[in-house]
Amino acid sequence: MISKSAIKKLTQILGEEHILTNKDDMSPYCHDATHNLFPPEAVVFPGTAIEISKIMQLANKELIPVVPRGAGSGMSGGALAIKGGLVMSMDRLNTILLIDEKNLIARVEPGVITGHLQEEVEKIGLFYPPDPASLNVSTVGGNVAECAGGPRAVKYGVTRDYILGLKVVLPNGEIVGIGVETAKGVVGYDLTRLIVGSEGTLAIITEITVRLIPRPEKKKTLLVIFPDIFSAAQGVSNIIREKIVPTTIEFMDSLSVQLVRQELNFDLPKGNIALLLIELDGDQWQIDTYSDRVSAICRDTGSMDIHVACDGKEAAELWMVRRGLSPALLSLKPDKINQDVVVPRSRLAEFVMALSEIGRKYDLMIPSFGHAGDGNIHVNIMLDRDNKDEEKRAEKALKELFELVIDFRGTISGEHGIGISKKPFIGMEVSESVLMLMRGIKEVFDPNNILNPGKIFDDI
Question: How, if at all, do strands 175-179 and 218-226 pair?
Answer without folding.
Answer: unpaired
